[in-house]
Write a structure and sequence with these properties.
Layout lengths: L3 H8 L13 H24 L16 H24 L10 H4 L10 H21 L8 E4 L4 E4 H24 L1
Antiparallel strand pairs: 1-2
Helix pairs in contact: 2-5, 2-6, 3-5, 3-6
Length: 178
């Protein structure tokens, strides 16, 4: 039986991301380093992943492993574009998307996880190249999130997505350990 504390620790095995914190440029550089590590960490886990676990979930009502692996591609595609909008548009707003509905689409059950990891790696290479090309002041630029009615700086976005990948990596580790 899952208790409230157990459900919270399964939903957020690495803890919750701290929104609203003022992040420094040095913290953003650390987040970029974590982003660089993420695709290799995901690949290492996939190399050890038991095929019979691909349809298992990390908690009742959670996504299965295939959905998680494929969700990460969706996440970083969106984040890459959100970064470009933030950098190129005045008063930019990001376009929210319904992650749960996307997780119901056929490509979220895509069996060739290796393809998804390669796509993620190539996308991350490009996004990190962009981030590393930016002067420090660019990380103060902001984008509005219309669904949550908050303004996010690039500092916060980079930190959030560095957290997000390892958050789901922990979900996948839970699945593979059972």
């Amino acid at each position: 039986m899952q208790t409230a504390n157990n459900i919270e620790s399964l939903r957020y095995p690495t803890g919750r991301f701290e929104f609203g914190k003022r992040y420094t440029y040095e913290e953003s550089l650390q987040s970029i380093e974590r982003l660089k590590e993420f695709p290799q960490s995901l690949q290492r886990l996939f190399n050890e992943f038991k095929k019979e676990n691909l349809n298992k979930t990390y908690r009742d009502g959670g996504w299965n492993a295939k959905q998680l692996f494929n969700h990460l591609v969706d996440v970083y595609i969106n984040d890459y574009m959100r970064t470009k909008w933030l950098l190129t548009e005045e008063q930019s707003a990001l376009k929210p998307y319904n992650e749960n509905e996307c997780a119901k689409l056929a490509d979220s059950e895509y069996e060739n996880i290796h393809d998804s990891i390669i796509l993620l790696q190539l996308l991350m290479n490009r996004w990190i190249f962009l981030l590393e090309s930016l002067p420090a002041e660019s990380f103060n630029k902001t984008i509005f999130h219309p669904e949550y009615k908050v303004t996010l700086s690039l500092h916060e976005i980079v930190g959030m997505y560095a957290w997000h990948g390892f958050h789901h990596l922990a979900h996948l580790q839970i699945i593979n350990s059972n």
